[in-house]
Amino acid sequence: MTGSHKNTPCMGLKGPAMLRVLRSGGGWFRRTRHRRLVRHLLAGCEDCAAELRRSLLPLGTEDGGAEKAQTNSAEKAQAKNAAQDSYQRYLARLEQMERPAQELFINGVAGLNTAEFVLWMVSKCRRLTNSDPSRAIQVGKLAVIASEGLDVNTRALACMRMGQVLRRARGDFLGADTWFEKARTLLQDEHADPLVLAKLNRLQGLSRWSQSRSEEALGFFEAAACIYEAAGDVE
């Protein structure tokens, strides 16, 4: 079976990508990928089975290091919780400031002009969109400010969230398109992540669909699906 592996349905899929396919839910595209991968594994491809095992087993488990892996996981969780607590305090202070002071604070406090803080605010903005739309917009703006000078993917994600929150909180499709296009310009960079571009295509597709511009929406969805399929990612 190993000799024919390069012609198999899971060609190019790493362990994490195979896990996503196996755990995927509804939708014709996801179900089809799931069935093809399951049939291939049942046929006995040892290479793919080994790749999948490496992703399922914690680091060091095969050497009796499961306890160490659990300890490391707990330590990481504690560090993550501590960082999020700090982010909550910093965000509360930032929301009480005006724009020039916000920029000085972000650039002056260690850990704020970072991708981690920006992505935390992007997630916070998403969660607030339904419960507190006005605050969600303010947090989105702060994420854009904090992303300045960082890598293109982080900056693009902040712009994309700003566009998404304007669409959902205010129905401001024109404002959303402005931010989406800023993100698209950033993602023309050679260091841009194709999966971030796929996410942008999905968001713009949803925006067009909400405006009953179905033909344009389907074009964006198709572009996103092509990127996901090429990357072996079905999320």
Can you put this structure into words, describing what you see?
It is built from 11 helices and no strands. Mean pLDDT is 81; it is low at 1-9 and 59-63. The chain has helices at residues 15-22, 28-42, 46-56, 66-94, 99-108, 115-131, 133-147, 152-170, 173-186, 194-210, 214-231.
N/C terminus separation:
28 Å
What structural category arises from helix and sheet content? mainly alpha
Main pleated sheet: none
> How many helices does DSSP assign?
11
- Give me the Rg, rounded: 21 Å
From the spread of the alpha carbons, the general shape counts as globular
Estimate the strand proportion: under 5%
Order of helices and strands: HHHHHHHHHHH
Average pLDDT over all residues: 81
Query: What's the total number of strands?
Result: 0
The amount of helix comes to over 70%
Low-confidence stretches: 1-9, 59-63
